[in-house]
Structure formats: C-alpha cells, structure tokens
Design goal:
This protein has 8 helices and 3 strands; from the N terminus they run ααβαββααααα.
C-alpha cells in the first residue's frame, strides 16, 4: 500500500518531504469533489442521502455514479481535516475497494468493511505524511505542530503518523550511544 501512495505522490511530481494536495490528486484521477451544500447538480439519490444523514461528525464519501466516481465532502470542517477526509476517500479509490450493497446507508462506515476502513486511513497517512518523511521529521525532532504546518494536517493526524517514527529515531539514537 505504501508503494501505491508513493507512486501517486510521484505522479504529482512530489518529493517524499513535500506536502500533497489531495484535491490535485482527485483531479488527476478525474474525481470531482462536491461540497455537501452543493449537491443539487449531482444526483437526486445523493441529495436525499446526505440531507437525511448530514451531521456535524460526517466527513466525506466516495460515491459511484455509473463508472464515474465523485467525492462529497463536509466543507464545514477545518481545512486540515478536509484534506485528511479527501485523502481517506482517495485511499478507498486507489485500493479499488468494492462498494457494499448498502452504500447509501446511514453512515460512511457501512460503505466499506472495517478492514478497508483501516486500509483507507493508512493510505491517507501515506499520501499526506509518508513514513519516510515522518522519519525525517522525527530525526529533526519536529513537534506535531511543525508536522501539522508543513504537511497541512491536524496535530492529531501528525501524532498518528509520527508515533512510530519517533520511537524509531529514539532507538536509532540509543544504538549510537
Ligand atoms: Zn472510509
């Protein structure tokens, strides 16, 4: 999965330590991104779905329309969270996760299996803050806030990506002493 993310980043001309614009990656894959408030032109089914399930915690969804794919996002969230949401949905797309039959059901979690949810979240991490870059940041002793600023992710997302690499850096230093 890491290789898939690395290839996608390379296709956008990014180096391992560059921040990724998930919206640019959507354009690269011909996926239009719509705001939840902007759904009228998309499909009646989608409007019905999101007007009945719209909640503050709802983030985004990848939706098949024929052979095309669109992403609908909750644009009320902070930019950092929206970037992570889009990257997560791209993760489902890039890994070609099959949609379940209850796609247009109550929550996003029911669109995919639990395993696929974990994989999509892993992909979002690899797209936005690849482990290679996270290790580099760990050796530079970057705080979550530094990672957040540089890669355009939330401090929580930064923590998720930095946890392992920080242990790695710590161990590497301990070995050198
Ligand atoms: Zn998901």
């Amino acid at each position: 999965m890491s290789e898939v993310a690395a290839e996608e980043r390379a296709a956008l001309g990014l180096r391992p330590f560059d921040s990724l614009d998930p919206y640019a990656l959507c354009r690269e894959h011909g996926i239009s991104v719509y705001s939840i408030d902007d759904l009228a032109d998309v499909s009646e089914e989608a409007v019905e779905h999101f007007t009945t399930t719209k909640t503050g915690s709802w983030s985004a969804a990848l939706i098949p329309i024929g052979s095309a794919r669109i992403i609908v996002e909750n644009s009320a969230h902070h930019a950092h969270r929206r970037r992570a949401n889009i990257a997560h949905e791209l993760g489902h797309h890039l890994l070609e996760h099959p949609f379940s039959e209850v796609l247009l059901d109550q929550s996003h979690a029911q669109s995919f299996t639990d395993d696929h949810e974990k994989q999509a979240t892993f992909m979002a991490g690899e797209l936005l803050v690849p482990q290679h870059a996270a290790k580099k940041a760990a050796f530079r002793d970057w705080a979550n806030e530094d990672v957040s600023l540089h890669f355009g992710v939330s401090a929580q997302f930064a923590q998720m990506q930095m946890k392992g690499p920080r242990v790695y850096a710590q161990n590497a230093r301990a070995r050198q002493r």
